[in-house]
């Protein structure tokens, strides 16, 4: 038997791009991050998946030292935070969840300001701006004031701005939240291109499909810590099995099915108008009639984070 | 993490530059944004900086001046023209310090965006204060130009006025940033404007000499930075700089340094949680 390998089967003894150990962040009596351990290897697209309030945004802010951890150790690109955070920020790009563009400036002016902030040498700034315009697909809008851009354009500009200095690590905080499907597709292909070109990506999201499609490794975050981690396929297999049996019917019947499931110790969850029984491949003859389908990441996610909404 | 390991991680041929504290490149980056914004609003800013002193000179210089011809040896209109320099500096530094800071931090989240780049809180705030003060120094000249139309005589010493305005502006811009950092809402600025800034600009020797005030008040005026600004501007503008002006300058520099550190500490506490 070969030695245990990392989940995607690639040996990697390089420094991790991100390493968080035992991070804790409290706001008064609220513990936003509660003993977080996280390691993101170089060249991966790493998805941080979790319900709202799981601590994803706090984690993202800790990586730029805009939030300081109360406990724990954080290193980004080999630099210790918060002491060397400025050096780390020089070499990474950040795409925030909330639009923080300067509405009074033009697209080009914003890119110019950030080219300077990221210390792009003067001679290289025009080319860097052209490249960012291309990434954002905003060439014809270069001289438009941001206030006049659509939501999707602004989101693309945020991405272009974060990539102006060709960073080797990019933090994307909920990159497609609130966008329509067309824009979302566009951003997904952009993120996929980044990964292909060797850039390490840490992306937080609460869209399961986004994590499933883009991420090499997914960590599920809940209550301020990682509760499961692996490739999407591994997570599905480990927490929802191979198949899911969906049983449809009137509400009374669904209640019966749920009771039957819990009496037999089957993992189940409400799935819209149906009850979904996980690990359907292990069910014996007692299984009720229903539709079998392959288990997906959503099944695993709900199994891990629970059905109740806080 | 050893330094050697860190170095090996970098892509070949791209030695990352080291960043330090209060870097000129970071200050220039933050200020380049201010310059771009200024490019959009300079007309309105310039208009109000010309019209305001004009109104003061018309109202006080001509209106009030029909009652008061001289303050000491100085014609009243010239007294007001030089005094209003300090008012112009105060308004063009304290107000941007308060309002711009609050809007960029709370509403536009510009500061959040910049702090995710390699810019420290200290650099961000220092650059903002420097830019505001630079502008205040330049616009502090406006009342003198208006004053020329009202009979004020150009003097070589007036070339020092932008510098005096700049140093005064540093203090008041820092004051404004610190106020913005502790304000709960933008309405809170009304307290500061009416209770602090308005008395400050009246009891500074702008429109009437501090010495004509009751003893208690005139002593309080001595700790008003604007008073020291007014004295310096007058002494420079009338060719009367003397040893006392070293004290005025020292007071303004001390005020600037103090407010700079208070602004960095107060806003830093709110920007980094």
Question: What does this protein look like?
Answer:
Chain A is an alpha/beta fold. Chain A has 2 domains: about 45-60 and about 90-235, P-loop containing nucleotide triphosphate hydrolases (Rossmann fold, 3-Layer(aba) Sandwich); about 240-295. In chain A, about 35% of the residues lie in helices and about 25% in strands. Chain A is built from 10 helices and 14 strands. In chain A, the strands form 3 sheets. A 6-stranded mixed β-sheet of chain A has the order 6-7-8-3-9-10, sandwiched between helices. A 4-stranded antiparallel β-sheet of chain A has the order 2-1-4-5. In chain A, a hairpin with a 2-residue loop joins strand 9 (about 215-220) and strand 10 (about 225-230). Chain A is globular. In chain A, about 45% of the residues are buried. Chain B is mainly alpha-helical and about 270 residues long. Chain B has one domain. Chain B contains 11 helices and 2 strands, in the order H-H-E-E-H-H-H-H-H-H-H-H-H. In chain B, strands 1-2 form a two-stranded antiparallel sheet. In chain B, a hairpin with a 2-residue loop joins strand 1 (about 70) and strand 2. The longest helix of chain B has about 40 residues, at about 25-65. The relative contact order of chain B is 0.13. Mean pLDDT of chain B is about 90; it is low at about 1-15. The interface of A and B includes residues 68, 75, 94, 102 and 117 of A.
């Amino acid at each position: 038997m070969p030695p245990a390998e990392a989940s995607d089967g690639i040996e990697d003894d390089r420094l991790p791009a991100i390493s968080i150990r035992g991070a804790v962040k409290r706001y008064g009596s609220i513990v936003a991050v509660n003993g977080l351990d996280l390691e993101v290897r170089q060249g991966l697209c790493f998805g941080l998946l979790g319900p709202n309030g799981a601590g994803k945004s706090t984690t993202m802010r800790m990586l730029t030292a805009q939030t300081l951890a109360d406990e724990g150790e954080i290193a980004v690109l080999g630099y210790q935070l918060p002491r060397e955070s400025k050096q780390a920020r020089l070499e990474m790009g950040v795409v925030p969840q909330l639009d923080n563009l300067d509405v009074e400036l033009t697209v080009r002016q914003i890119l110019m300001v950030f080219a300077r902030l990221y210390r792009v040498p003067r001679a290289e700034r025009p080319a860097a701006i052209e490249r960012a315009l291309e990434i954002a697909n905003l060439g014809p809008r270069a001289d438009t004031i941001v206030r006049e851009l659509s939501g999707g354009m602004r989101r693309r500009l945020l991405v272009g701005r974060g990539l102006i200095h060709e960073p080797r690590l990019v933090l994307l905080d909920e990159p497609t939240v609130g966008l329509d499907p067309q824009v979302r597709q566009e951003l997904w292909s952009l993120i996929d291109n980044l990964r292909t070109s060797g850039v390490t990506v840490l992306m937080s999201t609460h869209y399961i499909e986004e994590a499933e499609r883009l991420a090499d490794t997914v960590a599920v975050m809940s209550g301020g810590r990682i509760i499961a981690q692996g490739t999407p396929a591994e997570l599905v297999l480990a927490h929802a099995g191979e198949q899911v049996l969906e049983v449809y019917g009137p509400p009374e019947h669904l209640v019966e099915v749920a009771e039957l499931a819990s009496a037999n110790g089957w993992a189940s969850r409400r799935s819209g108008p149906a009850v979904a029984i996980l690990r359907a491949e292990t069910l014996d003859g007692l299984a009720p009639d229903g539709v079998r389908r392959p288990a997906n990441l959503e099944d695993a996610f709900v199994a891990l984070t629970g059905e109740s909404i806080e | 993490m050893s330094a050697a390991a860190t170095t090996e991680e970098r892509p070949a041929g791209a030695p990352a530059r080291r960043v330090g504290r209060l870097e000129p490149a970071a200050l220039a980056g933050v200020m380049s944004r201010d310059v771009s914004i200024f490019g959009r609003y300079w007309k309105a800013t310039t208009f109000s900086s010309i019209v305001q002193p004009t109104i003061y000179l018309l109202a006080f210089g001509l209106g009030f001046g029909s009652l008061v011809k001289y303050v000491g040896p100085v014609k009243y209109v010239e007294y007001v023209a030089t005094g209003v320099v300090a008012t112009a500096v105060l308004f063009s530094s304290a107000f941007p310090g308060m309002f711009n800071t609050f809007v960029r931090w709370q509403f536009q989240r510009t500061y959040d965006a910049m702090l995710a780049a390699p810019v420290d809180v200290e650099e961000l705030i220092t650059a903002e204060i420097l830019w505001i003060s630079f502008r205040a120094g330049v616009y502090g000249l406006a009342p003198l130009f208006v004053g020329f139309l009202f009979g004020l005589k150009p003097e070589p010493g007036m070339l020092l006025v932008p510098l005096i305005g700049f140093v005064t502006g540093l203090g008041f811009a820092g004051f404004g940033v610190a106020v913005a950092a502790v304000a709960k809402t933008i309405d809170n600025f009304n307290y500061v404007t009416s209770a602090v800034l308005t008395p400050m600009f009246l009891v500074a020797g702008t429109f009437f000499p501090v010495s004509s005030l009751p003893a208690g008040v005139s002593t309080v005026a001595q700790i008003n930075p604007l008073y020291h600004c007014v004295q310096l501007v007058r002494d420079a503008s009338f060719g009367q700089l003397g040893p006392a002006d070293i004290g005025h300058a020292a007071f303004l520099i001390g005020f600037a340094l103090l407010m700079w550190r208070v602004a960095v500490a107060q806003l830093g506490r709110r920007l980094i949680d």
